[in-house]
């Protein structure tokens, strides 16, 4: 059945998608290619292009088309491309039209200003430089929340931008479960005595790291004519168009973190890469939520990239690449070192277990900030006392404490929980994949990762945004989001074995 | 919500133009990325993005609102920057409005198809497969020309797109003055060839990059605002203020990359030095193709092939390429990079042959447009004239009529601006030396800042504030004049 208004809608959305792709490219270029002197002009161009994209999306014509297409939607199969596109667009449209463009502009500007204050504040470890900007960001978030129907909790509205349909109460329940299990696990591991990972620090030739990371990525499915990888201080993934996947990683001369960052970003990239090409140039042509996205970056970084079988294949190669560092370190010692659990100050350097405590702390503080239960000025003190409580570490200064992440300066309140939700979801999907694929370790030991990638593409990636995150997870795993498999996985892998 | 519409008309116009400039900035990054960094498979999605951006910029610019604002503003005080802004905007707006959207769409579509056909035709040296596309481009050009008020010749409309205020008659007159002199010099060179042994290499690519970067550093390239990359076809682009990107092409068999780097620097420095107050307005770029080319040719030829420049740089180049150049003295090297060597390809041509390549194209474009030459006869006529002008035999169309992409993307009327650039470069150069005295001694010390500063002051900073002929008048005190260029050629090559 052809429905001319559906084609019109598609055409309008394709234009919006083109603008968003152009915006992604401007952003990628700014981080990777642009000479620093171009930043002021680039900020203007990015603002203009995103404003135009927003204007085109909230155009009343689109609202009218969506109204006219109601019966067409109802007569189409729920799973069909047509019904999904109309359904998802309607949800996006209803959210987007709630917020006056002036407020969107103000929020964007305030974030830009706060981000430029965050840099020096972190460098000088001076929270006071950032404080007024955080206050402005929070005050704007309140105005943003007011644009929507009253939710059970204020935080629900913020969370919904990153994890659609997810409620604060659900996250709290999941995180409470995690906290209850992880705090004792961290203690047990600490009691079992230290793991030697001293050989992970040293001199690691950057070109060799680059080649090694690329070899892994290629084994995972990276192809030169569709992907590229560059160096940036903060790794990220960007896909400015179908068939165009760009990863970045950070090669540090004194450790191997670039390899894990590469696998992490590969996971984001392969998700975008696996979205069905027929969804390109529509709002359905991307990953469904940040949590599900993160589940895939964590799958490739941790479930694959920190597994025994993965290193069974790659460790001899790593020893060959860095003979001085690893010539006399056996595989088991290396495996234990890259899986070492040790409470520390910095989220992005944290191990698989303590990482979640970093997130839970942020999740709690965000709610307290938005509800006014913690004042911005008291944030450093709150931060430090909870770091002590949850991880038993002393924060020496704000640069290594409350100022370490850029998210709040960028206005991203509600973003952090998606990182841990990703961890939780990753293992739910993983268990389901293993049921189908059987002994995957045996394939990993041979350096073969294609079957896993194909399974994930078939069961998850290709769906893009056709369904809600919850529906997506249910379709893949047959169950709702559930922290038990993740906790089980962590225990099995990392809890000290009784001697 | 009505705040914006109640803004004073000039402010509102600037706001609209700034948004359009931002879209153009985006187009420029998108285009640069397609040629430098995009994974191959991204091409299809990229074509959609480019088309959308181009269409949106066009729609926004030709809007009634822009016209109404221009009407409200009328003419402003003659000498001000704002008056220039309004003048340039009005001219562009009126020209854009002459062309119906459907025709613009057809032209853009035909270009996409033709450039792909050209690519294949060139690869297989098969003119017949490109012929229908060229015929289509010509037909569209006729329809395009009809959108504008009648001019002396149809070709005038096309030139005006690239070189404001220039007419076919003027170009013809300038070229008529050049042609016999160029033919005479070619004849002369054929009788007395220069040894090209100094340029036979090998020139390892890493050495070429080193050489290019050293020259750029001395010219004024800095990492804060510039970058240099490698592409098959060199170009320069400026997405926005403080962001200048050059590309070059290196071949281990020769040193053309060094000259193409200097050429693109000339384009880049013109853009870099435009007054930053003009950013995000239509005044923020170079004023015309010919003036732009005059600057790329200045840095490539007038500076980059001069004795003084090589007195400074040749010892360094010998150090970089000891195997190829260790036994070659400076005088033979300079003679070799300035030799007249008639060849088949415009892009590789020496200063003298280059002019004849352009004159050939200028003649053929007019004849095609006037139906004096049929598209199917083009290869034969091309080859005959190449023999006549440059004494070379064209072995196949890939090295003949199919060598340039321009016609496939609808660029008719563009070629003459290259040679006008050569002519203008010497007009400006003579004027600069009147002020600065001898520059060769500066160059011999690796010192280029007096020249750059003079060019910035007199040309670059003005951006598009003055139309090209007015700028030339202001700088040199005269209109387009081939005299200085002829004199330069005679002195250098006779």
Folded structure, characterized:
The complex is a heterodimer of chains A (499) and B (494). Chain A is mainly alpha-helical and 499 residues long. Chain A contains 22 helices and 3 strands. In chain A, a hairpin with a 2-residue loop joins β2 and β3 (244-249). The model of chain A has no long low-confidence stretch (mean pLDDT 96). Chain B has 494 residues and is mainly alpha-helical. In chain B, 63% of the residues lie in helices and 3% in strands. A 3-stranded mixed beta sheet of chain B has the order 1-3-2. In chain B, α9 packs parallel to α10 (256-272). Chain B starts with 8 loop residues before the first helix and ends with a helix. Classes of the chains: A mainly alpha (499), B mainly alpha (494).
Class from secondary-structure proportions of chain A: mainly alpha
What integer value in Å does the Rg of chain B equal?
23 Å
End-to-end gap of chain B: 70 Å
Q: Give the CA-based shape of chain B.
A: globular
Helix content of chain B: 55-70%
Report the sheet-strand fraction of chain A. under 5%
Chain-averaged pLDDT of chain B: 95
Strand order of the largest sheet of chain A: 1-3-2
């Amino acid at each position: 059945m052809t429905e001319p208004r559906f084609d019109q809608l598609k055409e309008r959305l394709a234009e919006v998608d083109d603008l968003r792709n152009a915006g992604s490219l401007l952003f990628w270029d700014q981080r990777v290619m642009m000479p620093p002197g171009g930043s002021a002009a680039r900020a203007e161009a990015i603002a203009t292009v995103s404003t135009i994209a927003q204007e085109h999306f909230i155009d009343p014509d689109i609202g009218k088309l969506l109204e006219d297409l109601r019966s067409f939607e109802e007569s189409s199969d729920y799973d069909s491309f047509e019904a999904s596109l109309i359904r998802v667009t309607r949800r996006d449209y209803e959210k987007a039209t709630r917020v006056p463009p002036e407020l969107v502009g103000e929020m964007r500007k305030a974030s830009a200003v706060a981000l430029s204050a965050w840099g020096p504040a972190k460098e000088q470890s001076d929270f006071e430089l950032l404080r007024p900007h955080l206050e402005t960001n929070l005050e704007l978030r309140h105005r943003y929340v007011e644009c929507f129907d009253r939710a059970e909790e204020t935080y629900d509205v913020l969370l919904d931008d990153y994890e659609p349909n997810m409620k604060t109460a659900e996250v709290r329940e999941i995180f409470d479960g995690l906290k209850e299990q992880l705090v004792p696990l961290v203690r047990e591991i600490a009691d079992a005595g230290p793991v030697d990972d001293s050989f992970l620090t040293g001199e690691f030739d950057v070109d060799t790291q680059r080649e090694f990371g690329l070899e892994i990525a290629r084994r995972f499915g990276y192809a030169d004519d569709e992907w590229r990888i560059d160096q940036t201080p903060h790794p990220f993934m960007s896909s400015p168009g179908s068939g165009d996947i760009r990863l970045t990683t950070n090669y540090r001369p004194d450790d191997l973190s670039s390899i894990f960052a590469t696998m992490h970003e590969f996971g984001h990239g392969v998700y975008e890469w696996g979205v069905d090409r027929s969804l390109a140039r529509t709002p359905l042509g991307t990953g469904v939520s940040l949590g599900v996205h993160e589940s895939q970056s964590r799958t490739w970084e941790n479930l694959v990239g920190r597994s025994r079988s993965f290193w069974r294949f790659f460790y001899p190669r790593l020893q060959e690449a860095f003979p001085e560092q690893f010539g006399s370190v056996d595989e088991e010692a290396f495996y234990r070192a890259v899986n070492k659990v040790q409470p520390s100050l910095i989220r992005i350097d944290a191990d698989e277990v303590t990482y979640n405590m970093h997130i839970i702390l942020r999740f709690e503080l965000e709610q307290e900030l938005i509800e006014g239960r913690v004042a911005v000025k008291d944030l450093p003190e709150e931060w430090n006392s909870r770091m002590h409580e949850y991880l038993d570490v002393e924060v020496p200064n704000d640069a290594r404490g409350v100022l370490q992440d850029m998210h709040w300066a960028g206005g991203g309140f509600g973003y952090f929980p998606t990182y841990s939700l990703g961890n939780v979801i990753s293992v739910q999907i993983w268990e389901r994949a293993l049921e189908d694929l059987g002994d995957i370790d045996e394939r990993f030991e041979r350096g073969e990762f294609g079957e896993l990638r194909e399974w994930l593409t078939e069961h998850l990636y290709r769906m893009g945004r056709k369904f809600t995150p919850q529906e997506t997870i249910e379709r893949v795993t047959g169950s709702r989001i559930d922290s038990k498999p993740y906790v089980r996985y962590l225990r099995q892998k990392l809890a000290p074995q009784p001697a | 919500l009505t705040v914006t519409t109640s803004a004073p008309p000039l402010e509102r116009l600037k706001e609209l133009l700034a948004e359009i400039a931002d879209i153009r900035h985006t187009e420029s990054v998108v285009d640069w990325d397609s040629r430098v960094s995009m994974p191959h498979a991204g091409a299809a999605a990229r074509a959609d993005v480019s088309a959308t951006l181009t269409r949106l910029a066009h729609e926004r610019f030709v809007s009634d609102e822009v016209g109404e604002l221009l009407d409200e503003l009328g003419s402003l005080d003659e000498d001000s920057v704002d008056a220039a802004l309004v003048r340039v905007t009005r001219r562009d707006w009126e020209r854009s409005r002459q062309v119906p959207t459907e025709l613009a769409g057809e032209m853009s579509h035909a270009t996409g198809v033709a450039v792909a056909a050209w690519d294949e035709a060139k690869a297989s040296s098969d003119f017949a497969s490109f012929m229908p596309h060229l015929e289509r481009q010509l037909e569209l050009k006729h329809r395009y020309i009809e959108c504008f008020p009648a001019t002396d010749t149809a070709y005038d409309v096309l030139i005006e797109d690239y070189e404001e205020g220039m007419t076919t008659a003027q170009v013809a007159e300038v070229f008529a003055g050049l042609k016999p002199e160029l033919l005479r010099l070619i004849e002369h060179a054929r009788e007395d060839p220069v040894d090209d042994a100094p340029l036979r290499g090998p020139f390892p690519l890493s050495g070429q990059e080193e050489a290019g970067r050293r020259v750029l550093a001395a010219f004024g390239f800095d990492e804060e605002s510039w970058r240099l990359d490698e592409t098959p076809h060199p170009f320069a682009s400026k997405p926005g203020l403080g962001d200048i990107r050059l590309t070059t092409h290196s071949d281990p068999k020769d040193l053309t990359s060094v000259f193409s780097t200097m050429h693109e620097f000339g384009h880049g420095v013109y853009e870099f030095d435009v007054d930053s107050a003009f950013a995000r307005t239509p005044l923020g770029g170079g004023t015309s193709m010919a003036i732009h080319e005059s600057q790329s040719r200045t840095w490539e030829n007038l500076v980059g092939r001069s004795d003084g420049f090589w007195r400074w740089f040749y010892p360094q180049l010998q150090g970089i390429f000891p195997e190829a150049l260790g036994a070659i003295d400076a005088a033979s090297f300079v003679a070799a990079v300035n030799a007249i060597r008639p060849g088949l390809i415009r892009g590789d041509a020496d200063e003298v042959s280059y002019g004849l390549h352009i004159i050939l194209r200028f003649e053929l474009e007019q004849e095609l447009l006037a139906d004096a030459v049929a598209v199917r006869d083009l290869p034969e006529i091309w080859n005959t004239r190449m023999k006549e002008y440059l004494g070379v035999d064209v072995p196949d169309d890939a090295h003949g009529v199919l060598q340039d992409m321009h016609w496939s993307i609808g660029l008719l009327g563009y070629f003459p601006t290259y040679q006008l650039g050569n002519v203008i470069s010497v007009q400006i150069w003579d004027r600069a030396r009147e002020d600065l005295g001898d520059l060769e001694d500066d160059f011999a010390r690796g010192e280029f800042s007096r020249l750059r500063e003079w060019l910035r002051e007199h040309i670059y900073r003005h951006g598009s504030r003055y139309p090209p002929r007015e700028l030339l008048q202001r700088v040199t005190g005269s209109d387009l004049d081939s005299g200085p260029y002829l004199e330069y050629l005679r002195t250098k090559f006779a």
